[in-house]
Amino acid sequence: MASDSLHRTVLEASGHLVDSGVLSEAMDLIVRGGATFVVRKFQLGATNLQPSQVVVEVNAPSQGVLEEVVDRLVRLGFFTSDVQPPTILASRKDGTAPEGFYSTTNNRTEVFLDGKWRRVRDQRMDAVIVVEKDGTPFCRKLRDVERGDRIICGHEGIRVLPEFKERDRSDFAFMTNEVSSEKKVEWVVGRVADWIRQREGKLIVVAGPVVVHTGGSEPLADLIRRGYVDGLLAGNALAVHDVERAIYGTSLGVDTKTGVPVDNGHQHHMRAINAIRLAGGLKSAVRRGLVKDGVMHALVQSKVPFVLAGSIRDDGPLPEVITDSNLAQEAYWKQLKGAEIVLMLSSMLHSIAVGNMLPSWVRTVCVDILPQVVTKLADRGSHQAIGCVTDVGLFLHLLRDRLVGQK
Fold first, then answer.
1. What kind and span of H or E run contains 285?
2. d(CA 397, CA 331)
3. Sequence-ordered list of residues with C-beta below 8 angstroms from that of 302, at least 6 positions apart, any chain
4. Confidence at residue 269, expressed as pLDDT on a 0 to 100 scale
5. Which three-class secondary structure state does DSSP give residue 126?
């Protein structure tokens, strides 16, 4: 394709473009998208700390192809060299955005407003960018858009700042899509423990009922009591099986000490739900002494906030479970504000939901015995997620021992 194509633009990017794979991904994206490129300038970082810089001319056979390619390049961190203010259009109806609205990623994003780049607040993926009257841009879910909201459209004036891989391969940070059952669990636990001890923000735990089934409730409860956990996000099942274990000593009717099913044990989770409902909820059950240990007991006693999100398959559910999915999502989002580390423990449903809410700079660790769960989380866009394929009960015991032993 001739370089004097009528449909062309010039974009640039900077950062660890080579070792992160962004440059090769961008070039492949351009060609697969039906366009061509000409590298006008490329400067490789001279040291491991210096960023690389590239200026690329993109040529396309039509304006539609060009816009599609540029939109994808912007998500990789490219922005137009001739910076123009973004197109801002008002919403005409609650819960809707104008055609061509910019849909966000989970990476840091800036908007060129009033002659300068402004950081977008409340960064999250799959949102729109609303510009307040004072010029502050922020992310808002599509369903929360109100008529008259000023919304950014197109890709002009948008700059995405992706998290690049660290050049020091011995470091554990930002290892994109790392999933390996061969990785030494002790080494992973050690790195996570270091992060937890050094953090300044919140540690949020996302947990599924497998935590209880594998014997992980005791070390998790211990971590909560010792002040390491700042919030827990889960569903009805984790709380149900945790209180079943606390009341009956079983999980899904199986004795948690011997691993042997007990007579009529299949009824225990329903009887546990009924007992909590009769008590008026989890907090009341803890105060009355009905629930004397476990994860939920530790959360209530330590006054650590938790959110239980319901699903269509729930038994009961427990009184604290939020059955409206929109309200549950909003409650999750509020708890995640200020999070620095998120541990996702054997809960594919809730882990993916939380992953979609997190900005890319939040350290995210997904622990599951099934590699497919960790891979699926990364495939859904949470590229910062680091996977540890192991038994979650073992992981929690090792993590507790590492943190308590060196506290």
1. helix 282-287
2. 29
3. 224, 225, 227
4. 94
5. coil
